[in-house]
Design a protein that fits this description.
The chain is mostly beta strands. Helix content is 3%, strand content 69%. It has 1 helix and 7 strands. β6 and β7 form a beta hairpin. The longest helix has 5 residues.
């Protein structure tokens, strides 16, 4: 699975990974086919807190000046089916998409806090059943 790392002049950096695979097994004039497609993109960027959120007293003297952010996007699809000269049997498998942005800030020498959102989308390919998930997370790290 190839991967690419990159960094732009605006300090946006990231990593992209792709995986594509196909397996075939032939039995009784039918091919059992299994396919997997996967992609993952991770982006990282720090923002000037004083300019962006100065009205909330972010970036003021005595506290952090940067908001660190990451975005993680993952797509995964697995398919299983049988092929013959007549055609293709019903598809089975699942596809998933997740998007996870995360923001953190150093409030003081002893306190760092973060905010994370989780969104997920899953689909059963045979039954066309779709599931959506949403999550919200807050965290704090105290250093003594």
């Amino acid at each position: 699975s190839p991967g690419w790392n990159f960094r732009f002049k605006n300090e946006l950096s990231g990593n992209l990974r792709l995986t594509l695979s196909t397996d075939r097994t032939r039995t009784n004039a039918k091919d059992a086919v299994s396919r997997r497609t996967s992609a993952n993109l991770k982006l990282q960027k720090s923002f000037d807190a004083e300019g962006t959120l100065g009205f909330l007293r972010f970036g003021k003297k005595g506290i952090g000046t940067k908001i660190d952010s990451t975005l993680d996007i993952t797509y995964d699809r697995n398919e299983n089916f049988r092929e013959s000269e007549i055609g293709q049997d019903q598809n089975a498998g699942q596809s998933h998409l997740t998007v996870v942005p995360n923001f953190s800030y150093q409030f003081s020498r002893n306190l760092r806090a973060g905010f994370r959102l989780n969104y997920g989308f899953s689909k059963d390919l045979r039954q066309s059943i779709t599931t959506n998930t949403f999550g919200l997370g807050l965290n704090a790290t105290l250093t003594f």
